[in-house]
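Example record

The entry below shows one chain as it appears in the dataset: sequence first, then structure tokens.
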Amino acid sequence: MNNDNTTPPDEKKADAFEAIARTMVKFRSEMEHFDSMGTKIADRTRFILRAVFSSLAISSIYLVFMIYQMANHMMVMTDHLESMYSRFGTMSQNMHGISELVDSMGNSISGIPVMAQSMVKMNEDVSAMTSSVTGINTSINTIDYDMVRINLDMHEMAGRLSNMNRAVNSISNDVNEMAAPMNSGPMQGFWPR
């Protein structure tokens, strides 16, 4: 005769199998959930890495283009500096000519008996000095033009450097924003900031 409090062994076995089956179903469901989460995290990580590498490739190409532009401007500046150097040589020759003409004027003035001839020579020397001063003015105007061109090139180079700095800062901000999803969800705190 069975007590009401006792359970037959077959029923105990059925309850145990049912509990094990429920546990296994729950375990399988949790493993499927973890698998789907892992797949999502892997997809998100792959997307972020592709975006980061694409941004780095584009920024590298842009930086190479900027460096190429700067090299071209440096070549133009070098040409202007060479032109300035040649103009300074011309000015030096003109100044030497003026010095010789002034010496000639002094020699002409010292000869009182030949004053008329000296005055003619002085007139020629003054004309030559006027021509030399005109050449100096032309050289100074050319130097002013070269300085204006160099100043424009320097401003343009400064603008390009400012654009490069903004591009690098923008890329840094984009990388930080793309890395933000890595620090949320189940992987929170795993990646360093």
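Notes for this example: The longest helix spans residues 9-110. Residues 13-183 form a domain with the Helix Hairpins fold (CATH 1.10.287).
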